[in-house]
Design brief:
heterodimer; A: 238 residues; alpha/beta; six-stranded mixed β-sheet; four-stranded antiparallel β-sheet; 38% helix; B: 376 residues; mainly alpha; ABC transporter involved in vitamin B12 uptake, BtuC; two-stranded antiparallel sheet; globular; binds adenosine-5'-diphosphate; binds magnesium ion
């Protein structure tokens, strides 16, 4: 049984039919990626899993439990952490406060302190900036902060929405390294949404290709990387 | 870095906010003093009018103290508007009624004190604390109920809808309290049983330079009470986990939910805190003016709303600044306008509303406000 099982999910924004029957699974310890063009429904898929968008039909099961239609804060409390598109740092909270907010449901202060030190080890840049307001960080630092914040509750699954968006190429490499390390060192399961399909497929074990709200391909990352259609459409080759 | 040093704590939660209040008071008093002298020296014949300037000069200490008193009341009410606006981008027009209810609860509590002969035997600090805390508690719970019943079901509706609901709630509460008082007391002019009680009514002479200012004890109670409560609020908002939750929700509600924060609970908490401050202000105000009615919320509520806009709606510091500034302006106008027969004191309010119009025209985000992205 997979850790996260999504079946036949339909999500609407008013009249707009954004997800037209998404079915996918993420196994424990895996990195699975969801690639596709702008507007394909990648973010909506993550938003539906974390409860900020409501599906009209379909179901989401997490660790065997039906979480469809649950409130975002209850889903977060179960161990699903969502790093939203555009990072969504709290701009007027300090870096430290942003990180602490990520541990909202952790009662043990010692645990929070220990976890925070782990985050500073993973992202030394954040340690230098603890008392700075979140809104004053650079894009790359904000991405680090968003990931650190999401990891503070020691989640079972991390939903990452376009972590490389808007970052300089050097930083993109760094972020993908971190994603691999989180998966290997913390044993965190990751569902990764990317437009940068090549990088995503390099770190993932499996992938899904999304088009207009439907999954059009599902395979191992290796196979997708060598699929001619994928190479042509998503990796920009002719 | 998690454990802050005591010195750092003292600075953030004691010295800094106290300094801020002092700066706001001293700043507005200074500017208005210059203006008052300027007016005295410029306008009436013979020019310059030294006699008038001297007269106004002797009134200044009194004006400043009454300005601070009014200002703190406005600031405490303004906090409720601004905090709720911060999380929901919504003006709770029924907030003035929470102030009114607080003043009525304060009256009821003092009536009990009086009936039980505690008024003269118990320590005044204890009596005031019980009255103010009861008023705060009742108004806070009422604010939570208000949100649950009249605003939460309308969340996501067009912005005018909850606004209209708030106006409805406001009328409902005025009439409800009026009916309640008419039935139980056969009168809705509620006079605090404080007349003849020395700790509340005996003037305290204060010698400033060569002039003596008579302070009302209740003015001191308002100032001390407000300062303590504002210090607590600053600590609560900036120094506790729940306060951090409130700030997170007001910056990005959706993302706050993703962090595991129960957003509805934080919104209810915000209403509670705002309502409690409004109610506490009502009781303090009631003690000072002596008589309150179910209609007593209207003007202070409106003025406090202006204060919140003046300081920058959504900003807690802005509410403090706006409240103190507006209180000072009013008190100075009261002091100066008597010398202008054409105007007279009755016209003070016109200036308060002129201030609102001027801010809306020239700086809609208020003195300390962030840029306004959405117009109300
Ligand atoms: N808040 C919204 N309101 C209305 N339509 C939306 C909203 N968010 C996304 N959509 C629409 O839903 C579809 C899927 O969007 P999204 O999930 O953001 O795609 P992706 O993340 O793959 O770029 C798009 O057609 C988009 O225009
Ligand atoms: Mg997207």
């Amino acid at each position: 049984m997979a850790l996260l099982e999504i079946s036949d999910l339909h999500t609407y924004y008013g009249q707009i039919h954004a997800l037209k029957g998404i079915t996918l699974t993420v196994g424990e310890g895996e990195i699975v990626t969801l690639v596709g063009a702008n507007g394909a429904g990648k973010s909506t898929t993550l938003r539906t899993v974390s409860g900020i968008a409501r599906p009209r039909t379909g179901s989401i099961r997490f660790a065997g439990r039906d979480i469809t239609g649950m409130k975002p804060h209850d889903i977060a409390a179960l161990g699903i952490s969502h790093v939203p598109e555009g990072r969504r740092i709290f701009p007027l909270l300090t870096v430290q406060e942003n990180i602490e907010i990520g541990a909202w449901n952790v009662a043990d202060r010692k645990q929070i302190g220990k976890r925070m030190q782990e985050m500073f080890a993973l992202f030394p840049r954040l340690r230098e900036r603890v008392q700075q307001k979140g809104g004053t960080l650079s894009g790359g630092e904000q991405q680090m902060l968003a990931i650190a914040r999401a990891l503070m509750c020691d989640p079972k699954v991390l939903l990452l929405d376009e972590p490389s968006m808007g970052l300089a190429p050097v930083l993109v490499e760094g972020i993908f390294d971190i994603i691999t390390r989180i998966n290997q060192e913390q044993k965190t399961t990751i569902l990764l949404v990317e437009q940068n399909a090549l990088m995503a497929l390099e770190v993932a074990s499996r992938g899904y290709v999304l088009q207009s709200g439907k999954i059009v391909l599902a395979d191992t990352a290796h196979a997708l990387m060598h699929n001619e259609e994928v190479r042509r459409v998503y990796l920009g080759e002719n | 870095m998690e454990a802050r040093s005591p010195a750092d704590w003292m600075y953030r939660f004691l010295l800094f906010p106290l300094g801020q209040m002092l700066a706001f008071i001293a700043g507005s008093a200074f500017i208005l003093t210059l203006l008052a002298y300027g007016i005295a020296l410029l306008f009436p014949e013979p020019r310059p009018n030294i006699v008038l300037a001297d007269q106004i000069g002797r009134q200044l200490p009194g004006m400043v103290i009454s300005g601070i008193t009014t200002g703190f009341v406005y600031a405490m009410i303004a906090l409720g508007y601004t905090m709720v606006y911060g999380v929901l981008k919504f003006i709770n027009f029924a907030h003035s009624e929470l102030f009114m209810v607080g003043s009525v609860v304060g009256f009821e509590v003092f009536l009990v004190f009086s009936a039980q002969a505690m008024l003269l035997t118990w320590h005044p600090v204890l009596l005031v604390a019980i009255a103010v805390l009861s008023a705060g508690l009742v108004s806070g719970l009422l604010a939570v109920t208000m949100e649950r019943v009249a605003y939460r079901p309308l969340r996501g509706a067009p912005r005018l809808v909850p606004l209209i609901s708030a106006i409805g709630v406001s009328f409902f509460m005025v009439d409800f309290v009026r009916a309640l008082m008419a039935i139980t007391r056969n009168d809705f002019n509620l006079t605090y049983p404080l007349n003849g009680v020395d700790w509340a009514r005996a003037p305290i002479p204060l010698l400033i330079g060569t002039t003596t200012v008579n302070l009302r004890p209740t003015q001191i109670i308002i100032i001390v009470g407000a300062v303590l409560m504002l210090l607590f609020l600053n600590y609560f908002v900036n120094g506790t986990k729940l306060g951090r939750g409130i700030r997170a929700v007001s910056q990005d509600m959706t993302t706050a939910g993703l962090m595991g924060i129960n957003v509805n609970r934080i919104i209810a908490l915000t209403f509670f805190v705002g309502g409690a401050f409004g109610g506490a202000a009502g009781a303090l105000f009631g003690m000072n003016v002596g008589t309150v009615t179910p209609f007593v919320g209207f003007f202070p509520g409106l003025k406090a709303f202006i204060a919140a806009v003046l300081g920058g709606i959504g900003s807690v510091t802005g509410a403090l600044l706006g409240g103190l500034t507006l209180g000072m302006i009013e008190s100075f106008l009261n002091g100066v306008l008597v010398y202008f027969p054409v105007f007279g004191q009755r016209y003070t309010d016109i200036f308060a509303f002129a201030v609102l119009i001027l801010i809306l025209i020239f700086r809609p985000s208020g003195i300390l406000g962030e840029k306004v992205d959405e117009k109300v």
